[in-house]
Amino acid sequence: MIIFCIYGAASGIFESEESFYAYLAGLGFVAPFVFTLIQAGQVLLPPLPGPICCVAGILCFGPVGGFICSYIGTCIGSIAAFYLARRLGQGFVRRVTSPKVYDKYIGWLEKGDKFTIFFLIAVAVPMAPDDFLCYVAGLTRMSLKKAILIILLFKPPTLILYSLVTSGILERFF
User: Fold this and answer.
1) Which of 66, 84, 105, 155 has its CA 20 to 30 A from that of 133?
2) Rounded to whole angstroms, how far apart are CA atoms 149 and 89?
3) Which domain holds residue 113?
4) Angle at 65 between CA 24 and CA 158, to 5 degrees
5) For the chain, how many structural domains are there in total?
6) What is the pTM of this model?
7) Distance of alpha carbon 61 from the chain centroid
8) For 119, which DSSP code?
9) How many CB atoms lie within 10 A of CB 173?
10) pLDDT of the chain along its 174 residues, tens only?
11) Of residues 52, 76, 46, 67, the one with CA closest to residue 159
């Protein structure tokens, strides 16, 4: 996965919706599986643009198929981020994120139960730093079960919104 992400970044696959779409379209029947893995990878590797991946999924697989692949991949990546942070600790989280983002949100570790509410809201709201906060959640005393429930239950609104807005724009202008 990491090698693919490096290859994708170096070859320009992730530069635009069009280049990403062209790449996926060339994969044939394995495209949904590859896309789902890419969605998981974009959570784990912050430089990959999540919204571009969501839009490309909708373009390739339609609103429903794009949503399903995005949901599965995003949940896998979010749960993996939580687990990796839990197992590898704060030093790992610091290495996989930018210092600016790390410094901005790491203070939530000291907020206790308030972090759980903040995390829940961030997972449900578009454009929130929920990918990074999955790492932060792994550094708290939050149980894996609670993190999984929050991710599975509160991630769909964001993805549905991306799907609806994108499909609406596509229908209106194309």
Assistant:
1) 66
2) 22
3) 2-173
4) 100
5) 1
6) 0.83
7) 18
8) H
9) 6
10) 556 666 776 777 767 767 777 887 788 889 999 999 989 988 888 666 666 677 778 878 888 898 899 999 999 999 999 999 999 999 999 998 888 888 888 887 777 778 899 999 999 988 788 888 999 999 999 999 999 999 999 999 888 887 777 667 766 766
11) 67
